[in-house]
């Protein structure tokens, strides 16, 4: 392996400018805004930067390391979307198929028409939800944590929470979801939601495997992703980071989830394809490299075709619009201006409007604990930031990381 300076130069990046990344984020650690952080940049076949700093577990005095295991939350969504499209490539369904063909509980959904959560009025949907609606978050589902709409409240009442649902498996989850009205008619708006958890159930129904079995045999094994799962084993536990939450009063962080006593220490009941996985920098890099390579694993195993990846990573919002004029809801893991949405990924469609460096066609997503990745096909670049701080909008970590990375391009 090349030394960092040589690797950076081979990657067409300036070592001195890349060296700004670590001290920049060290200020977050020194000011007790983050316990620790890990940053990685891979470009043109070279690992140009891999920095770790701070602690992954303050109480136990464990330093952040290159093999630290993180809760990636919604960075699970692209992996589930890839699983769906692998089955699509086998001809198992069409994107325009109604999800009710495969999950009958979701075959006769109504739409919210007014009233409070415990007395909602509903009406017939203009059409039923399709697989494409689910991949693009245009189905009309929501998340209970949004807390802005009566349907959100109903999700909380019936424990349709997505990543924290521990009392029901994916089949039961879909049954509960089928009793809920949609926020809006399918295809009428973009609403960040439990759609990807529904897609996880679709993978199970179509493949005949549990979601984790499909992930392990069809994605993780070919890519060598040995630390990505819905559970952390006893052997892995010393590498598992604590998760923290920003305290608005002290402007520092408090413990949100202890690694050794939290839900990841035991087998999951609910395998959330929308937000349940843990992973490492090295593992997630392997997933991103597969995408950038056009769908192949290092050993030549093909997970997806290049045309399918091209389909997934273009904007699928109606009339080529961005999220600014199309998104509903209080939260998602992306900004809206200049950003479109594909089949499982946000995608930059207007770099100037987005007001952040990164060419059109760059695709990405993030997770609730402030993690982020992006893949830039134009620059042949992958960047990943891992930390464990909730909520993901506490600080502008993602945009700052992006500024620092693109500033280091030197060819």
From TrEMBL:
GO MF annotations, alphabetized: hydrolase activity
Gene3D superfamilies linked to this entry: DD-peptidase/beta-lactamase superfamily (3.40.710.10)
Pfam families listed in its UniProt record: Beta-lactamase
Source taxon at top rank: Bacteria
Positions of the Beta-lactamase-related domain: 25-400
Presence of the UniProt keyword Hydrolase in the record: yes
Keyword Cell membrane: no
Keyword terms, alphabetized: Hydrolase
InterPro entries in the cross-refs: Beta-lactam-related (IPR001466), Beta-lactam/transpept-like (IPR012338), Diverse_Enzym_Activities (IPR050789)
Identification of the protein by name: Serine hydrolase
Source species taxonomy: Bacteria, Pseudomonadati, Pseudomonadota, Alphaproteobacteria, Hyphomicrobiales
